Amino acid sequence: MVSKVSKNGLITIPMEIRRRFGIEVGDLIIWSIDERDNAIILYVIKEPLKYLEGKYDDSEIVYEVVEETADSLIQGEENAGN
């Protein structure tokens, strides 16, 4: 299977992969680099809130705030590359 990277750095996960691993809208994909094998490893997080639970000291933090912050950081990286 092959995916092409768009000019914005986006890729489409092939349907066969999405079905096999049950990847749905809202799931988190964590990217990891395997330096030894020069490979990228992806981890699918089915319950993002459960994954983030206990990661932050701020009891008022909610998933939407984390998502907005991540989106703005990603947008900043994209703009810095232009």
In summary, what is this structure?
The chain is built from three helices and two strands, in the order αββαα. The chain is α+β, with helices and mostly antiparallel strands and 82 residues long.
Overall description:
With 82 residues, the protein is of the alpha+beta class. The protein folds into 2 domains: 1-46, Pemi-like Protein 1, Chain: D (Ribbon), CATH 2.10.260; 48-82. It contains 3 helices and 2 strands; from the N terminus they run H-E-E-H-H. It has helices at 15-21, 48-52, 63-80; strands at residues 28-34, 39-45. Strands 1-2 form a two-stranded antiparallel ribbon. The longest helix has 18 residues, at 63-80. The two termini are 30 Å apart. The model has no long low-confidence stretch (mean pLDDT 80).
The tally of beta strands, per DSSP, is 2
* Structural shape: globular
Share of residues in strands:
15-25%
From the alpha-carbon coordinates, what is the Rg to the nearest angstrom? Answer: 15 Å
Regarding CATH, which class of the largest domain? Mainly Beta
Q: Structural class per helix/strand content? A: alpha+beta
- Classify the oligomer: single chain
Kindly identify the CATH topology of the largest domain: Pemi-like Protein 1, Chain: D
The number of domains: 2
pLDDT < 50 runs, ≥5 residues: none
How helical, in percent, are the residues? 25-40%
Give the CATH architecture of the largest domain.
Ribbon
Largest sheet entry: 2 strands, antiparallel
Helix count, per DSSP? 3
Order of helices and strands: HEEHH
Strand order of the largest sheet: 1-2
| End-to-end distance | 30 Å
What is the arithmetic mean of pLDDT? 80
